[in-house]
From TrEMBL:
Any one of the GO BP annotations: peptide transport
Organism: Nocardioides marmotae
Domain of life: Bacteria
SUPFAM superfamilies: Periplasmic binding protein-like II
Signal peptide start-end: 1-22
Keywords carried by this UniProt record: Signal
Entry protein name: Solute-binding protein family 5 domain-containing protein
Domain Solute-binding protein family: 114-511
PANTHER family (alphabetical): ABC TRANSPORTER SUBSTRATE-BINDING PROTEIN, PERIPLASMIC BINDING COMPONENT OF ABC TRANSPORTER
One Gene Ontology MF term: peptide transmembrane transporter activity
Region: Disordered, residue numbers: 23-42, 47-80
Key word Signal present: yes
Pfam annotation, one family: SBP_bac_5
Length: 592
């Protein structure tokens, strides 16, 4: 799973950030290619034998500083690897600072493959995938120079079970649902740090092995291994949350020099990283400077100026108003990247109980106008969505909930409200949005206008751009959240499977089930799919997607997503990461 930046969630426009994002596409990010929406790959290949060091990038040179602008994106709230589940944070940390059991590597033709990282291979399962064993490399180290031990990896994985300490982390979806005994054990912090409280994760420091027992078959454990939560943590108090999240120890080619949430992250070389231990990462630049919550208009001006500041910079998005100019000026340095991501409006299932009202909301959404207002390029970075599962995902069904693709149609919305028994202006929608930048506020204006023209009354609660809407939407005790009956979520698959979309968004009690959808029969179907033969699961997820949408319509898919990245002329190898839907940080360099 990975959520993307929350402001985009509300506006369904500038999607950018949750955790693992599946999909690749050998030509989705081809520099200079004709720009039109492209689907992600349906699969990610694996190479369990690949070893370090990563082969050099042709023409690459060492040195220099890369500045990365993230317009309208507040970035990660902390840097604790166990808590990382956003596209923005994961793409930076997984590439540059934090290693895990496995990782993704970009090949020469642009496709992404799953390869080993701290583990010597992709793990060894038993016959029914209820137990996995990983052997940890002996030549990988912390930024202190100390070797990474199997015990530290086992402890890092155990931390992912602590949903109280890490309520928005990926372990809330995978570790707590698949690891044996997770229904009883609450994690090393919540369960009073009892070292003997949980025995489903065992280690052998001499043999350098970590073994994990599952409560049910989990054939995708090697994919889950690519999350930072499946990596090491210092033992004991040294990694106590939340303090550890301010400046965690690095295991990758770069380490944290400074971090100001919602403002800036500075990374410098980690001289204790061992290239021979790493099959996919490089260490070309001397320094990385990430600028969060950047003003989109100012960033576009910088990237299109061609001045010294822009030459060693890149931007993780580009505004629609400058798309034509950027296409002409940047050429091969304007890179389009696909990803398996869908944007949603999430009506509160406990408050908006009539399916006709939820359908009315789908017709009240100003699709292209909202995208344009938030800086997206209709037909290139956003297209209308018709399902929960995104294009390129195996098993996805082509269907339309109401017999047609939802488009902005206020008269149709009013008809549906009338069928539900509501007069124009009678049904009130209460939503939150990020204020503070022209794009977020312009997109919100479009959404409110669409709702009001469609017969809804709107109460909109502004939230500073520095505060992620996810912190509100995923907190049941938050006072603002208690008032809302319309939320959002942007979701990217953690790997190319419906198992990383539907359960995370619609299982009862799931952290990112911001619609609060709950149907026991659907929960049971999700559990049953995990027990099917592997070759039957993709089609089953697609069928369940259609069933949920047509019978319940609990969340409203508003857009499928591509991204545009703008690279300065001295950024070498300008490419995207198709597994994370982000710039390809692992392979970038500053040209001499």
């Amino acid at each position: 799973m990975r959520r993307t930046k929350p402001l985009a969630i509300v506006a369904c426009a500038a999607l950018l950030s949750l955790a693992a994002c599946g999909g690749g596409g050998s030509d989705d990010d081809t520099p200079g290619a004709d720009k039109s929406f492209r689907n992600a790959d349906t699969d990610i290949a694996k190479d369990a034998e690949l070893q370090g060091p990563a082969e050099p990038i042709e023409g690459a040179s060492e040195g220099g500083t890369v500045t990365v602008y993230l317009p309208d994106d507040p970035g990660p709230e902390d840097l604790d690897p166990t808590n990382g589940w956003s596209v923005t944070g994961n793409s930076i940390q997984q590439a540059l600072t934090h290693r895990s059991l496995t990782q993704y590597k970009r090949t020469e033709d642009g496709t992404m493959i799953l390869v080993p990282d701290l583990a010597e291979d992709l793990g060894t399962p038993n016959d029914d995938f209820t137990e996995w064993t990983f052997t940890i490399r002996e030549d990988a180290s912390w930024e202190t120079g100390d070797p990474i031990t199997a015990e530290e990896v086992a402890f890092g994985i155990e931390r992912s079970l602590d949903s109280a300490a890490f309520p928005s982390g990926p372990g809330t979806e995978y570790s707590v649902n698949f690891f044996a005994g997770a229904d009883k054990y609450k994690g090393p912090y919540t369960d009073a740090k009892k070292s003997d409280a949980y025995d489903a994760i065992t280690f052998d420091n001499d043999a350098r092995t970590v073994t994990i027992k599952m409560a049910k078959p989990f054939p995708d454990m090697d994919y889950w291994g690519a999350f930072m939560a499946m990596g090491p943590a210092p033992l004991g108090d040294a990694s106590e949350p939340p303090e550890y999240g301010r400046k965690p120890l690095s295991t990758g080619p770069y380490k944290v020099e400074s971090f100001r949430p919602s403002e800036e992250l500075v990374l410098v070389r980690n001289d204790q990283w061992v290239p021979e231990s790493d099959p996919a990462r490089h260490q070309y630049p001397d320094k990385w400077v990430f600028k969060f919550s950047a003003d989109p208009t100012q960033v576009d001006q910088i990237m299109l100026s061609g001045n010294a500041q822009s030459q060693t910079s890149l931007s993780a998005s580009l505004s629609s108003s400058n798309y034509a100019d950027a296409t002409e000026k940047l050429g091969d340095r304007l890179v389009q990247q696909s990803a398996q991501c869908t944007s949603f409006w999430a009506p509160d299932y406990t408050k908006i109980t009539d399916i006709n009202v939820r359908k009315a909301l789908a017709y009240a959404y100003r699709y292209e106008d909202a995208w344009l207002a938030s800086g997206e390029v209709p037909g290139v970075t956003r297209v209308p969505a018709n399902s929960i599962m995104p294009p390129g995902m195996a098993g996805k069904k082509e269907y339309n909930v109401d017999g047609e693709q939802f488009t902005y149609n206020p008269e149709k919305a009013k008809e549906l409200l009338s069928e539900a028994g509501y007069e124009p202006g009678e049904f009130e929608i209460t939503m939150a949005y990020n204020e503070g930048t022209p794009t977020t506020e312009a997109a919100q204006e479009q959404l409110e206008a669409g709702l009001e023209e469609s017969g809804f009354k709107v109460t909109a609660i502004p939230v500073p751009i520095e505060t992620s809407l996810y912190t509100i939407w995923t907190d049941p005790s938050n006072n603002i959240n208690k008032r809302l009956n319309l939320r959002g979520v942007n979701w990217c698959s953690d790997w190319p499977s419906g198992s990383t979309m539907l359960p995370a968004l619609l299982r009862t009690g799931a952290t990112y089930n911001t619609a609060l959808f709950s149907e026991p029969a659907i929960d049971a179907e999700m559990d049953a799919i995990n027990e099917l033969p592997l070759e039957e699961q993709a089609d089953a997820w697609g069928s369940l997607d259609e069933e949920i949408s047509t019978e319940y319509f609990p969340i409203i898919p508003t857009a499928f997503r591509n991204d545009l990245f703008a690279f300065g002329e001295k950024i070498g190898n300008p490419t995207g990461d198709g597994a994370l839907g982000a710039p390809n940080y692992k392979d970038l360099y500053v040209a001499k």
